Amino acid sequence: MSYLLSATCAVPAAGAVLTAALPAGTTEARRRTTKTVALAVSVLTLGLAAAVAASFEPGGARYQLTESHSWIRSFGISFSLGADGIGTALVLLTAVLVPLVMLAGWHDATGPVSGSAAGSVPEGSFESKRRTQAFFALILAVEAMVLVSFLATDVFVFYVFFEAMLIPMYFLIGGFGDRAGGPDSDRQRSYAAVKFLLYNLLGGLVMLAAVIGLYVVAADQGQATFSLTALTDAISSGKLVIDPNAQRALFLGFFFAFAVKAPMWPLHTWLPNAMGESTAGTAVLITAVVDKVGTFAMLRFCLGLFPDASKTFAPVIMVLALVGIVYGALVAIGQKDIKRLVAYASISHFGFIILGVFAMTSQGQSGATLYMVNHGISTAAWMLVAGFLISRRGSRLIADYGGVQKVAPVLAGTFLIGGLATLSLPGMAPFVSEFLVLVGTFSRYPAIGVVATFGIVLAALYALLLYQRTMTGPVKAGVEGVKDLKARELAVVAPLVALTLLLGVYPKPLTDMVNPAVNDTLSQVHRTDPAPAHPVAATNGGEQK
Amino acid sequence: MIPAHALAAANGSGPSIPAPHIEYGQLSPMLVVFGAALLGVLVEAFLPRRARASAQLGVSLLGLGGAFAAVVVLAAQGHGTTKAGLLAMGAVAIDGPALFLQGVILLTAVLAVLTYAEGRLEPRINGHRVDAFAAQAAAVPGGEQERDATREGLRTTEIYPLTLFAVGGMLLFPAANDLLTMFVALEVLSLPLYLMSALARRRRLISQEAAVKYFLLGAFASAFFLFGTALVYGYAGSLQLGEIADVVSGVSQVTPALAVTTQNDALLLIGLAMLAVGLLFKVGAVPFHSWTPDVYQGAPTPVTGFMAAATKTAAFGALLRLFYVAFPGLRWDWRPVMWGVAILTMAVGAVLAITQQDVKRLLAYSSVAHAGFILTGLIATDRRGVAAVLFYLLAYSFVTLGAFAVVTLVRDSKGEATHLSNWAGLGRRSPLLAAVFALFLLAFAGIPLTSGFTGKFAVFQAAAEGGATPLVIVGVLSSAVAAFFYIRVIVLMFFSDPQPSGPAVAVPSPLTATAIGVGVLVTLGLGLLPQYFLDLASKAALFTR
């Protein structure tokens, strides 16, 4: 039994405790120690994640590096971890993004508590002294819990961490803002935090009922376990037969939680609040990392555990996803707030991911998995540069900007790259995944594929309009003083841009890793790719192994 | 016909009544506690005033600790499993559930006594430390006598022996194996509690009002219990729970005199309903919950904590024994009713808590909701259900005690600042205390990795396996509602601006700090590594009869 996976999860968890326990202080030196320790922990985690990816053999078993520790025997629960291609790809994404988020938010925890309450906490009080520790410890805690969720091969373990990550996330949203909101930004932010928590908690509790229901159904048939592999094996071998009605109810219980988390239209309304009010780094953590657990779990749990119900509900879910694609894009076009625009763009993108998952074709699901990774990278680049811009001008409103490219060309250039990646320009990573999702959708649901394609046009509109309004034209008042990216900020953006371009032209390592897991998932739902009416081998031959 | 030898004995000089056989060893936990209580009375009578407080604390801790040691020894000797049996002519049963709950009650009592002895929160009077209890209980509030007593720095040290008597009753309550013993235990635990509720040092009128309300409603409930006892005796011809069960299920032959009444199911059903009313009142289930908020608010906070934790534990123990030992044969009659009670209790508790503006009232309604969750485990009517309830009570007791101990620390010039508006911004003034309280609230809300989640999962799983799926769904939805008000308090503490004239957090002595610290440790321990205690509860979950 290898301990690599549990080490990968334990390092950020231990790092969170360590960071929180570091000596408090208001001096810059003390703060820098805290930040450096946290960053070092996240880089170490990245190293471990890279080791996981390196030792993962794409042709091998579905779950590799598996380990299992006894946890709560009375409930039939063991702490089991295992990496499959999909999980490994997302573990890598998480491990790459967290250090960059920390670096981007290097100064986010410094300074007054918030805009309006600046005077109410005396300098040197316990709270302002502990702020930096809290911010970085919370990020590491989120990372640890997300990593466990991606690697868990026990339904209960997944549930526990899926739900527990809400708490640190909640404090990150509610406690740390970008100080660019209006006079009542405090109230707005705590509203956003509560909305985030309540939506996700409700989803989680509904899932809890379904988790218990699944156990009861399985225990009735002599399979009293929460182990995902044991359950899926029993289901595919016919040893565990879940009655269709029960299966549908359980599927909906699981799916509801994941759809809230993803978020899928019409359960998305918490996302714009949460991303708008939190810091840019937290917003990236939400949309690029935490939300991916939702779409990932649809693929792993909904399809794996409830194949028949998944097929039953797939058309409905596809339509909802389609509405999300178009709705998210349209609302994004109308936004006045940069961060909320990115949030609605993400809702549109999550529609594509869900489309790919439930198209139940190998291209669709490979595309969806790549989409999760690529959306994470490209949105992180877009959002973090937007955050740098907002921190300079102190406003989130698009109308306050104009002509930034004349005073800060590098900032504008990287913002453009982020925007182009978001609209899936060929040559950028998101293009590959969006193309795969659309091809996969077309081959089974041509009509839905046609409508979804309009999403790309709309994406071009919101991404380019945002660039045009903020970066081009005459330099607006208040923008003259905007400085270009500093070395630290360049260090954040450069890897993201490099990855966007690299995965755009050479996605093969990623697809090789993901495809076996996707094919395994498809075989669990007894779906094969429909025979193409026209030969399409030329376009996706590389991906089909 | 009277046997000749009995007549001879009656005529002779020897004793005519055979002396009952009393198993002192197995009864020792109760005997030790009652002994310590009597010693406490002597301390009150003979020690000088200044020496009483510390002497009482010592006596109480020794008594409770000794009793706990006795429980551990009995459990280790197998009296909870293999050697479980009836004692004292069948009046008392020492078995797994009894010993488990006695252990829980004793541990919570130890922590409660620690919070009683806290002397650093109230300002010193004439150089004397004073505690949370009235200077002189008999003095009229606001009168001359009270002012004198307060100026003297007097303390009501009677609280310690009163608590010990209540604990003695609580130890007997879940172990009582006949209805009369159960009634006596009910009274022994209740009468001291009525008195203790009236003993608040500050806001004495509301405290006395609480005591009167508690007493009147409690006496009413006791009367119900007693009347129920009479009716059931009329039906079954016995007070012993096991014999009642035999008559109910028709196993044992009834005497011809009883045959008339045994035909009469109305007697049995009304009797059972009345017994249940008496016990449901004590656990605070809807519709017998209306005393809870008033009493919780009015009673001195350390007493509230003790009451909320230990009384609930003891009463649920008695409820379990009544339903599982005496009336398993009537399962199909009482289960639907208890379904209704459980659903009402969860829903009403959660919904009414939302509108509360006082921390203690909020916790009171939350305790009502928790009574509902525990009832779902009781309804499972199997061994897993008992184990789940036992574990839940263990988890809940420590969270409750810790939460009320935190409430004692948030104070302004008028004493404890329990109005929620006073708690605004507490997280900024004293983050550590707010974080601890937030942990307790999250445990109440049943967030994973806390003891509350493990307990909730256990009862819901047991209920689902017992076929009570709708109950689980109601439970999950009420949890979502309940989560809202717990989170509201967290928002208030962390994301609101502190009031300029808001309360300060008093620095407690090591006594309260220990109580809170143990609460935190148990809350996290039972959340992260609950296996040992789940095993213990599951081993203990068999009633003897």
Record the SSE blueprint.
The complex is a heterodimer of chains A (545) and B (545).
Chain A: H1 4-21, H2 28-55, E1 64-72, E2 77-83, H3 85-104, H4 126-151, H5 155-164, H6 166-175, H7 185-220, H8 228-236, H9 244-261, H10 270-277, H11 280-305, H12 307-333, H13 338-359, H14 362-393, H15 404-407, H16 409-422, H17 429-444, H18 446-471, H19 487-505, H20 508-524, H21 537-540
Antiparallel strand pairs in A: 1-2
Helix pairs in contact in A: 1-2, 1-4, 2-3, 2-4, 3-4, 3-11, 3-14, 3-19, 3-20, 4-5, 4-6, 4-11, 5-7, 6-7, 7-9, 7-10, 9-11, 9-12, 10-11, 10-13, 11-12, 11-13, 11-14, 12-13, 12-18, 13-14, 13-17, 13-18, 14-16, 14-17, 14-19, 14-20, 16-18, 17-18, 17-19
Chain B: H1 4-11, H2 24-46, H3 49-76, E1 85-87, E2 92-94, H4 96-116, H5 144-152, H6 159-172, H7 179-197, H8 204-236, H9 241-249, H10 256-262, H11 265-283, H12 291-298, H13 301-326, H14 331-354, H15 359-379, H16 383-407, E3 410-412, E4 415-416, H17 426-429, H18 431-445, H19 451-465, H20 469-495, E5 504-505, H21 510-528, H22 531-540
Keywords:
heterodimer, A: 545 residues, mainly alpha, two-stranded antiparallel sheet, 72% helix, disordered C terminus, B: 545 residues, three-stranded antiparallel beta sheet, two-stranded antiparallel ribbon, 22 helices, 70% helix, quinone (chain B)
For the termini of chain B, the CA-CA separation is 31 Å
Provide the gyration radius of chain B in Å: 24 Å
Molecular shape of chain A: globular
Distance separating the two termini of chain A: 29 Å
Reported for the largest beta sheet of chain A, the result is: 2 strands, antiparallel
**Strand composition percent of chain B:** under 5%
Individual helix count of chain B: 22
Helicity level of chain A: over 70%
The overall average pLDDT of chain A, rounded, is 86
Q: Catalogue the unreliable spans of chain A.
A: 112-126, 537-545
Instruction: List the secondary-structure elements of chain B in sequence, H or E.
Output: HHHEEHHHHHHHHHHHHHEEHHHHEHH
Strand proportion of chain A, as a percent range, falls in under 5%
Count of DSSP strands of chain A? 2
Low-pLDDT residue intervals, each spanning 5 or more residues of chain B: 1-10
Mean pLDDT of chain B: 89
